[in-house]
Design brief:
Blueprint: E1 4-7, E2 12-15, H1 16-40, E3 101-107, E4 112-117, E5 122-127, E6 133-137, E7 143-148, E8 154-158, E9 163-167, E10 173-177, E11 179-180, E12 183-184, E13 191-193, E14 199-201, E15 239-245, E16 254-259
Amino acid sequence: MAQEAYDSTAGGRMSRRGMLRSVGAAVGAAVLAPRLVGAQTPPSPVGPPTTITQPPRDFSPRGAPTTYFTDPDVLTVEPAFNGLRQPNAAIIRLWTGALWSEGPAWNAQGRYLVWSDIPNNRQLRWIEDNGYVSVFRIPSNNSNGNTFDFQGRQVSCEHVTRRVVRYELDGSVSLIAGQFNGKRLNSPNDVVPHPDGSYWFTDPPYGAQLYEGTVDAAGGPANTGGRLNPKLGQPDNGRPAEPAVDDGENEHSLRLVRVPGAAG
């Protein structure tokens, strides 16, 4: 005879087998309920990957497409510059393989980008039509900043020769600046053309080291102790690095990025 359990709340009798069936059904419903609710609830949107997410953003061709409106890795420090941003322009890695890339300059006529690989003593070029990257100029005299003037001529700042040069359209090279007050320049860093035909450039001592230029002679501004030390620099007083001409109506303002605490 089957064993029976007494149900005191209902005042009747329930078989043990029936009780087990009821418990099993309740447990099954509890397990399935979250799945059913999840199937009916649309998934929450996943934020775009950035350089600090896990896994971090992949900038290679294998990376996920950037379909969001504003690139999450373009950060606003000063809101006044938001008007200069192109919101739907995502960060794309065009190429990698340099020791230290500096001085990108866009040539609108040729639709190509030129930049310096300073320690490798060369300039590289990326062509927009096919994305091909090749050596553009070697040796480059450890060039740093580059630009194109209003006549389409490339202007470069050279560390090892401590001068600013212009590459003419016929391939010849013109010296723009090599001395100031009778002394050689330190190591021209970056340059910008002005509509009046002049060039404005900065001249910090960054290139006065063997890694990217030449060391000063004993007693020079970047070698006051007279030692052949590629890391010896000037006192920290904030050094100009990147110039830009104000594109307002008057074009009389020069913007400078100063680098406090930077090594010489």
